[in-house]
Specification:
Two copies of one chain form a homodimer. By secondary structure, chain A is mainly alpha-helical. Chain A has helices at about 1-10, 10-30, 40-80, 85-120, 125-160, 165-215, 225-265, 270-295, 305-335, 340-365, 370-380, 385-395, 400-415, 425-440, 440-465, 470-520, 540-545, 550-595, 605-620, 620-675, 685-725, 725-730, and strands at about 525, 530.
């Protein structure tokens, strides 16, 4: 039996290599295409340089944060003895690989945009091929690096960690690997927040002065902020999203592995434990292989329309999803996991949940449906009613994804638990593996997601290079296609974040347990019984620490958690506001001081605008990110384990709902504007259009800065709590 | 000892009578003043009629809901035997008195506005006297009716309820009285939601067409929606607030009484139990007497300026607060409550917490401070940045009130618990009594709060009657004074809501306990022990129902709770949007079809606009209110006790933060606009002003519809759970 497990395990590193090889191949293929006219090349060069310059600044700050945290972990591991010695290293690699995934993705995207525009000069289909294959580079790099990191660490830790007890070893290995999740989360938060601030400062600034004041179209080369805007798409939507989903993907696998290790700790279950730990990794790996199959299935005829393109993309993702549904059954069976039919159903539930949330997102944000049309209609009574209706609809829209997650979570729990609520360890494993299932085909879903900003940038390039109406129309078609697939992608991102965070709560208690043992507290008093710490169940710890809803420490933790979600969004919203204001001032200054910009005689100073966004993002990203790291530590020191559990569930429940609200409100404002630009309610240039632009502008930081950052905030706070558990276990003020 | 208790108890009904007598006296005094010119009288008549017409419609719907719920309670009490037989009656009186408080308050306000305007023709001070004394009518009616209802029910139930065991009797009496809290909450929610939708539909509609499109000033008689707007102030800010605070006040006293009864259930503690139950009532009563003293202290010289007026108001409230701080010590001592110094400290903590939240609200919403000035500055880059910055700042501002409540709650808990976290029953009693302390001087704080809309309406009357610049300036001064005191009032409302809801969680478990006993389940299994249900502690029930943060039912309940807060706001926001759109259409129609409105030759059709707001509110108030009532029942039936506890803590934590966000964002947009109207950033009519109006318009439903309704939503859902506990105790699906 162990033979099958080991053979299956080697699929993981092998798949990592294969995925990276295909990514490399797609990248090379893309690079062979022509970048088009000298003007197109020059513009792409501008954008590429700006993006790299920004990333360099971001990494500088991130490196400082990583150094400080690593020193803290070294102290915890080597001096205070409240954490194991592998933690600092795992943390660093998680951050490094996450950054790398974003970097490669962005590099590819900045090379691909002009090439996509150039290919779109030939046909829609050719444009799609370049953009989509470039998106696939990102998708495969993200999952490839994640699988590589996971399998490498497993191999290393498996060799070196030896506590004498096999089951205990596995628990230490998997919880140590979670630390690398914290590295990835930290990197991801900076990338999302920094990238989000950069891109929206540029976007908002460009729109406010360019579109509204000067009355020039989007991406017009006369707008000084237009290059910064295009740079923003790359650093925010590509690099930010890459780091984000790297973290989601790795996080869900690691959390499930840790739950699997925790579920089978009794003597004689060692074999089952190995299976439970391997299962999420292997499903991720096989899903990646199927993603590659799916990517090749995305093909259309030369005379493709937008509709056939969409169905081509759909064919690819559906193929991968259906195949993983079937294959995961056999994987689980081969691994011989207890109640493998139930666990398999949890995976199916995860996939369906992600898909359903995507559809719900689409319903609430696409102009093809009533909610967004209603928002568009409000433009007739001005900007205020557009905002009121957008906020109202966004808030309302949270009902469906939340209920979907509730049903999905309960089903995933019960299926794996054999329909017995008391079987908590298997139930939680079911929640974790549902998230893994949801993200198993990330290789291709991310490809369809990442290709959106590439198409967007291609449109920018086409506009600035003056390629003419027809090309722009094609890139717009590609872009709007991207919006639809992005809705599905967001569903997966947000749904998996909720499930993973739920699963991680159990890992937190696992780490507390390990922390207690390390501190020499080998028994705990539960009610009147004395229980060995090592064999205490989750329920025992709940009683021991009184993690019940009548404990004021739990309730106050929840208040602080809910507040953190709002404060974090407030900080990032204001950051965008401030950076955008600086951008507006600069664009106005250039129009005023540099003669001939508006007539097209002089080129505006693009670089200065890129610099302003970079500086703004750099200055503003630190506070919200540090808050996310510090809060769980402080709450732990003051309120102890029960307070931290309250904090984590508070930020999870509020943050999840807030994230959906912001993403959906932002998305529907965006599409309401596009709907009007397509001719409804007076079309471009009308008063209604102006009102719609206000909505879209407000929605920008909602959907691209604050909203998506919340997913990471939730998980980062959980990860910090997990890594710091040794400290919290040592004692607290109250 | 029992003698002292009984003597002190009779203060409660006596105070109720005294408060109502003073209210009657103030009302009579106000009615003696002249209503001014025939035009002023006519306008006041218009507003009064409109307000009464609306209230009639609202009560019609509320009566239907009450009939349905009463039938349900009758079934539960008399047929299914899962609730006691007093519940339907208590429920009805709670709703009736709450409605009455709103009705009297509004009646007074509609008589007072023209009289205030007329008095302001003489001097600022005379205007203040009329407006403030009329506000005092509302304040005293609210607390008087609440104390009357509470003491009457206590007397009645004390005679009739006899379970054979004295301590158990008291538990049944106090938990039955909570049902009357549910009646009050139900009435309050309809009043707040309906009134909020009415007033903001009219306000937004009037502003959008009148101010922005037609360019006529606020309250201009040529605007067809202007009467509706003034009616709205009365039905929303007066009647809605009256019902709201009646519910808060009664709710905090009832919750604390129930906690007091639960804290001393052991044989031999009966005497202490009576004291603990009486304490919140007596403190409320004495606070009311001190409020009357404070009301008389509000006097100024004839040549008063705005500043001296504010200090006059401050003198009144401070006097009452300081006196209650001192007297409550002696009350608690006389009652001989266990650890009375600690309990007294909890009261002080409550008062300070409320005051601090008020100050924080003021800082974040007053144009005297940086946050609102920053929002005002954003008007220079247009409406979008105003909205972004307002939302960002509103979200950020949640940090301080939340941390204040966290510190306050922990201190109030620990002080009463003798600094021992394990002493849960006394700790929770401390949280409850802190809320009682916070609201003890409601008589006067509500007077300073309710006088705001009266002054606002007086301004409207003055404008429409063409009384000239000087009078309008004085009413504006009174109005802006009201804004400052309203900030403090909101702090008390929101702070007490959070504390009361926390305290009510324990009452929920108490009711579950009573429900189990009624069902014949006299013992519960906790771990391996069998415990008599009657003597089981809160902790035992937490273990029995597994109300821990690892139970997926709890976590899913939290998700649904957090979602409910957002969905409820979404529904009310959209309701305002829709009703405002209808109003805009109507005003535009009148301008178009009725010739001579804008030249002032023809009077617009005011009544039609009132009708539209009424219809809009009537149609839209039902769904959100029913959702609040149905959700706890459904969650209870599906997920059981643990799910309901999750739901309640989820809606409490998210709703509390969301409410602060919405109130503060709305308040600062309002004041940013006023700041610009006072001349900053270009002043009235500038582009900046237009952007500020967009912010203010968006803020209207934030601060006057959705935000304040959330307080009630949180408590209503908790009350529903409590009243339905018998049903939930009987079993659930999962």
């Amino acid at each position: 039996m162990l033979g099958v497990q080991n053979i299956l395990f080697w699929i993981v590193p092998a798949t990592a290599i294969i995925a990276l090889a295909f990514a490399w191949m797609f990248f090379k293929q893309m690079m062979k295409k022509s970048e088009g006219t000298p003007k197109m090349i020059a513009i792409a060069e501008h954008v590429r340089k700006g993006a790299m310059a920004y990333l360099k600044q971001q990494y500088k700050i991130v490196i400082i944060v990583f150094i400080v945290l690593t020193i803290l972990f070294v102290l915890m591991a080597f001096v205070w003895n409240v954490q194991n010695t592998w933690v600092p290293f795992a943390f660093l690699t998680g951050g490094f690989f996450s950054g790398l995934a974003g970097f490669f993705g962005m590099k590819t995207a900045t090379y691909a945009s002009a090439r996509t525009a150039n290919a779109a000069r030939d046909s829609l289909n050719k444009g799609l091929q370049v953009a989509f294959r470039s998106g696939a580079v990102m998708g495969l790099v993200v999952v490839g690096l994640a699988l590589l990191d996971i399998s490498a660490w497993y191999i290393v830790l498996n060799i070196f960690i030896d506590s004498g007890d096999k089951a205990h070893n596995m628990a230490i290995i998997t919880t140590t690997m979670l630390t690398f999740g914290m590295g990835a989360s930290t990197q991801a938060l900076f990338a999302r927040v920094g990238g989000g601030i950069f891109t929206k400062a540029a976007d908002v600034g460009a729109d406010l002065v360019g579109k509204i004041e000067a009355g020039i179209p989007e991406d017009d080369p006369r707008n000084p902020a237009t290059i910064a805007d295009n740079v923003g798409d790359n650093v925010g939507d590509v690099a930010g999203m890459g780091a984000d989903l790297y973290e989601s993907y790795a996080g869900s696998i690691l959390a499930t592995a840790a739950l699997g290790a925790a579920a089978f700790m009794k003597p004689g279950e060692t074999n089952m434990q190995v299976s439970a730990v391997f299962a999420p990794m292997i499903i991720g790996a096989v899903g990646t292989l199927l993603s590659i199959v799916g990517i090749f299935a995305v093909k259309t005829k030369e005379n493709a329309t937008q509709k056939t393109l969409l169905s081509a993309l759909g064919r690819g993702t559906n193929l991968s999803s259906i195949l993983i549904m079937i294959l995961s059954f056999f994987i689980l069976k081969a691994l011989g996991i207890q109640n493998y039919v139930g666990v398999w159903m949890s995976i199916i539930v995860g996939l369906i949940t992600g898909w359903a949330i995507g559809k719900e997102t689409e319903y609430f944000t696409s102009a093809a449906y009533k909610p967004t049309r209603n928002i568009a209609k409000q433009t007739e009574t001005g900007a205020a009613t557009v905002i009121i209706n957008g906020i109202g609809t966004g808030m309302l829209s949270t009902a469906f994804p939340v209920l979907t997650i509730v049903v999905g979570t309960i089903l995933a729990y019960l299926a794996s638990a054999g329909w017995d609520f008391a079987n908590m360890s298997m139930g939680l494993y079911g929640i974790g593996i549902a998230a893994v299932g949801m993200l198993s085909t990330l290789g291709i879903t991310l490809a369809t997601d990442a290709y959106g900003p590439i198409a967007d940038n291609a449109g920018g390039n086409a506009e600035m290079a003056g390629l003419g109406e027809e090309v722009r129309k094609r890139t717009d078609a590609l872009d709007s296609l991207g919006n639809t697939t992005a809705a599905t992608g967001k569903g997966f991102a947000i749904g998996s974040a909720a499930l993973t965070a739920l699963a991680l709560l159990a890992s937190y208690i696992e780490e507390i347990k390990i922390g207690l043992i390390r501190l020499g507290e080998t028994t705990i008093h539960v009610e009147e019984k004395i229980i060995p710490t090592a064999t205490a169940t989750l329920s025992d710890f709940m009683t021991y620490y009184d993690v019940t809803l009548m404990n004021p420490k739990v309730l106050m933790g929840m208040f602080i958690g809910a507040m953190m979600a709002f404060v974090f969004c407030g900080l990032t919203m204001n950051a965008v506001g401030r950076a955008a204001s600086a951008m507006v001032d600069e664009v106005r200054r250039q129009f005023r001081e540099i003669k001939g910009i508006l007539t097209g005689e002089t080129e505006p100073d693009y670089a200065r605008c890129v610099e302003i966004s970079t500086k703004g993002a750099q200055r503003e990203m630190l506070l919200p990110s540090l808050l996310a790291i510090i809060t769980p530590i402080v709450v732990g020191l003051i309120f102890g384990v029960s307070g931290v559990m309250g904090l984590l569930t508070g930020v999870l429940s509020s943050g999840f709902v807030l994230a959906i609200f912001m993403a959906n409100a932002g998305g529907s404002w965006d599409n309401a504007k596009k709907y009007i630009e397509a001719g409804a309610h007076g079309g471009k240039g009308s008063e209604a259009h102006k009102a719609a632009i206000v909505g879209d502008t407000v929605g920008d930081p909602f959907k691209d800065t604050s909203g998506p950052s919340l997913n990471i905030l939730i998980k980062l706070m959980t990860m910090v709590a997990i890594v710091m558990a040794g400290l919290t276990a040592a004692g607290s003020l109250l």
